[in-house]
Fold this sequence. Notes:
The protein has one helix and 15 strands; from the N terminus they run ββαβββββββββββββ. By secondary structure, the protein is mostly beta strands. The chain has one domain (8-28, 39-158): Sandwich (Jelly Rolls). The strands form four sheets. Strands 2, 7, 10, 12 and 13 form a five-stranded mixed sheet that branches. It has a five-stranded antiparallel sheet with strand order 3-11-6-14-4, with no helix packed on it. It has a three-stranded mixed sheet with strand order 1-15-5, with no helix packed on it. The longest helix has 4 residues, at 16-19.
Amino acid sequence: MVLKKNNYLIPEIISKQKFKTYGDLIEKPLFGNRTDFVANLQKSDEAKNQSVSVTRLEFSKEPIFIDLLERHLHTSQTFFPLDVEKYLIVVAPDKLNQPDLEKIKAFIVPGTMGINYYLGTWHSPLQVLDRSGVFAILMYLLDSDRDQQWSKIDKVMVKIN
Length: 161
């Protein structure tokens, strides 16, 4: 369990193995001009339209607190860093339609790596570290607000150092 007694998280450096329950990692090409990835882009039959958006996030000053998690019930959600040094993600598996806080985890992700959250993965909004950043987001949309589910949690501090 990563959640500590004093209600804080210590983030891990992300890896495919550590993140595989929650989604896929998308790394920039290490050799040559292109690397193809098999990302598990998911959607329910209700999700019809694909969406690409770009968002700018302000630098997250320490201490960082997480008190809200979200999940998408009808679509996976993919974040591509366009101009980011590194960022923080917090994830949790589902337990009876709520985040399982006994298994909540925090990861530091380099700005050279994108993430694809699987359908139903509880996650916090992204926290950009070091400086402001820009992301592209790929997901499907519904004609209603039934995709996104929010869960208020007891405030958790994330200790970066």
